[in-house]
Amino acid sequence: MRDYGFGRRDESLESIITAEMKEMVDIRINGPKNSAEQEIVNGELVYMPHFFDVPFLNGILYVLAQCTLPRSEYHRLWTISKGGIKFQRNSDDMGRALSLTPWLKDLFPKWSGFKGLREGNQVFIDFYRDLVQEIMLTQDDAHDRHFLDMYIRKMKQEMQENGRSTFSVDQLLLVCTDYTFPTATAVQMTLTMLVERILYQPGLQERIHEEIDRVVGRDRLPTIDDRNNMPFLEGCLREMMRIEPIVPLGLPHRALKNVQIGGYDVPENTMICINYIHLHMDKDIWGDPENFRPDRYIVDGKLCVAKDKSLPFGAGKRLCAGETYARNSMFLVFATFMQAFRVSTVDGKPLKKLAPRIQGIITTLPEFWIRVTPRNEIAN
To answer: Which residues does the annotation say bind heme (predicted)?
Structure first.
């Protein structure tokens, strides 16, 4: 998987994401072709965050199985994303009361969040069970086509040699689900929050459009090669992840032994969480952390990564495996979106305040419609 966007850049993956984003642009410009598309695009209005679902989800399908769903089956991708959001909103990083008192699921399945968690997760399991069963019919031990083939081959090999295997189909379904959850929810929400921020601070849009027109123009689509020459757009993405990290307390860890952290004694088995909000809003580091200011990462007209002290993907051994995939794909999707469109509120009036956030396993905001106006014809 490192060869397909998880650690290394992969041009074939980039072409997949770009092609899927072109389809989404086409749905808006030329109109929906079916009822599922009409739920996402209605005239000049598009539905956030789901307008961004397809490129990310077909991207992860390509990483896992070297396949994508055609436009006629986009509805399946939107179903996955909606299930993912339901799952994310029915718990939090600590598991809520359900993790301490699991019997609540039997007495109060809806109130405890168990019903939403199970329904949301089941969407992923059902999707990948069908995909894995289809792949197992054509899998050949002599030739690995993708990650799923490699996993299945290893599982069969252990069964033949030992009569048992630590690999299983059920475990494979969960692995695929784990990798898909962020691409079904987190990256879209980050871009949706950035679109909302643009509506709240209209000056951002003008600068993004100026940079795209100057660096990319209108005769071709943006590529990852443009990223180094587009510090403001990249700065917007980084600033969004700084000011509103999707997972504010990161993933909980457990102290394996007695340890001292920052002068505090932490006993063995203590749960440890990193407060990214505190880090990302530290005035000693950022100066004016309350302000959304992408220029803080730009020095002499160039992006200075050293200025970015944020940790939206964590750090160390537990660094998010999908950081490369997320950063590259978010740049491609957002740059293509902003090259093609000008965004505004549905009524055309300035946005006076940001929407309330919904705290769950990740931070989300309520779904909403925006008005999207084509800037001009984009490249084929």
So the answer is: 320
